Amino acid sequence: MPEDVVLRSRDSNVPDKDPSSTFAASTSHIFQDAQRSLTSHRKLCIKLRTVQQQASARGYEDEFNRKFTSLLNRVLPVKKSEPAAEKIVKFCSQFVEYINSHGSDQANNRDSDEDMMDVDDEVESASTTDSRFVEFLLRHLLKGIDAKSKVVRYRVCQLLASVVQSVGEIDDDLFQDLRSAFVRRLHDKESSVRVQAVMGLSRLQGTDDEDEPEPITELLLNSLQHDSKAEVRRAVLLSLDRSNITIPYALERARDVDTATRRCVYARVLSDIGDFRLLSIGMREKVLSWGLNDRDASVRNAVVKAFAIGWLENTGNDILELLERLDVLNSNVAEQAMKELFRYRPDLMKNLRFPNTLWENLTAETVFLARSFAAYCRETGMEDVLEDKMPEVTKLGFYIEKYSEFLKVEDNTATTVEQEFILEQLISITSNMDFSDEIGRRKIFNVIRDILSEKTLPETITEHAISVLRKVSIRERDFCQVIIEVMSDMHDQIGPDKCDLKDADDSFHSALSVVDSPASVTGTGSSRRSDTGSRRSSLKEERALSEVMINLKCLHIAQCMLENIEGVLKDNLALMSMLEDLVIPSVRSHEAPVRERGLRCLGLCCLLDKELSLENIVLFMHCFNKGHNTLQVEALQIICDILISHGRTLLDDENEIDSVIIRKMFLKGLSRCDSFEVQFAAALSLSKLLMAEVITDDQEVTTAISDFVSENKARLKWT
């Protein structure tokens, strides 16, 4: 089809018989030219405006309006893919915008006081003509809003939306009619029509009346959340006014199933919001986490660009303020965000400096920045940059020693959280350093050993400290020996012991000996015996509690140690001693926390020795069959790790456990409908065993896993 076929009219060749025919012919020519090129629309709007004014001045205003709408009618049945029709729609919108702005310009430009009255009359006449034209056009288009043809409904909605975007004030009755029409089309079965209805309603935002049953914003938010078509949700996302009410709903689209919609959140919505500090800390965390862990690379690139450019500019290119706004003490995504920031902005790597004054007065943000920098340098192989900007290992040892002093203070609740964080980050920085310097290695070795001896050392710091201690230890046996010594010293701190109880008895007898009269002995003996009995009872409870806490601490240290060794269990006498003196008694303990942690340590020991695994796998299965949910999850994970570590040979030996029994146990855990955690652990373990070919792939196992995944899609978090 030729491009100018759409609106070719036989009126274009009508001879000049009367003024109305002249105006009609001129209008037809203008429409015919408008469908050829967008560049000429401005000039054609001026021409059409002139025709309109001349027709109105000579009393042919109604004829012009009818001619304009009759030519516009020819666009309505034209399909969406026709470019000429799209040009006519844009021309119509541009013409309405032109006459609206032209009327405003006339009202603002008055040359002299003499012509004030004449100018006012002309402006009022032009304004009245323009308003009548716009109302006539909108009323005419509203007649086709409920047409049977989906193409006509689309074109009508498109024209209405484009015209509404260009007009200024609208009559109340016309406004209500437009709102009602757009709301009806918001539920149209055609997604293209719904998109245009969204565009129209978006122009009407902020004009809701209190008496309206459903405000426009609420209708748009409903479409944003529940419309089945991504293009409709995306149209709402781009059209919504940004407010405290709409922003959370808009940012939730970062979890949309459509890639383009998710990308739009980071490319457009965050840009429209402006300063990211307007968002709550929790929302910043979610937005970054969703984007950085998105499965699509384009979405990840969009969020990195928004973070590395937009958010950093909001803070005046101050990285420390940016980290402060992320709340690094409690953030789960700040580390990943900083890694992407360094990757996207390599210029920041060159400009970063870590002077000695910074290390002397560390804050949570500065130490986190240093740790992120060190980790990125180590990961990308930039050892020369790391060595140039980080202090020497010996200095790091002194800094760790300085910032670990708080562990020796009894009442330090006010600053413990930040100090613990600083110490943890310093130890993590040390793990990225080169220990070729023997003096520095020895300094770190001694400092870490002293820190591990503190009862109040948090578990997170313990994990990092033991990892660093393994790196600075020359041999694995030396590493194990040091850890065993630390646990032995910690056990020596258990108190009070029997001497304390004996002192309580001695004090009771000495108190009786100073009493002179028998009456006083009779009157006070029973009360003193009661006081001594309660003291003995409290001392026993204190000792029992202290023993449990020390055992839990030692078991955690043992667990961290076992996670950092790879040697054979029986070749290491220190490990065998720990197994006999700490792990096995803990498994038999009556205290549930001690028993669970002891079971985990026993499982780690089994990974180092096949015979120990054969001896204890029945115990782990018993824990699954008789234990509570947490113990069942632990048992499933341990059995899975043992089977993957030692392979099918563990099941091929002559013992009472074979692959059929193991398979039934995991399927039993998968069928536990009362505990999602147990089901998830069983499904994950079965999947690992299938991939490791420990369990042969069969229909029953794969079906059970598939059923679990399909039934729990809402609860499973896939990244």
Helix content: over 70%
Shape: elongated
Average of per-residue pLDDT values: 83
Radius of gyration (CA) equals: 39 Å
Number of helices: 35
Q: What is the beta-strand fraction?
A: under 5%
State the distance separating the first and last CA atoms: 49 Å
Q: Largest sheet, if any?
A: none
Number of strands: 0
Structural class by helix and strand composition = mainly alpha
Uncertain residue ranges: 1-16, 110-120, 498-524
Task: Give a structural overview.
The protein is mostly helical. The chain has 35 helices and no strands. α1 (19-34) runs parallel beside α3 (61-73) and α28 (573-587) runs antiparallel to α29 (592-606). 35% of the residues are buried. Mean pLDDT is 83; it is low at 1-16, 110-120 and 498-524.
Short description:
This protein is mostly helical and 719 residues long. The chain has helices at residues 19-34, 41-57, 61-73, 83-108, 116-142, 150-166, 172-185, 191-203, 216-226, 230-239, 246-252, 259-273, 281-292, 297-314, 319-326, 334-344, 346-351, 356-360, 364-379, 383-389, 393-403, 416-431, 438-452, 459-472, 476-491, 498-513, 518-562, 573-587, 592-606, 610-626, 629-646, 649-652, 659-670, 676-691, 699-711.
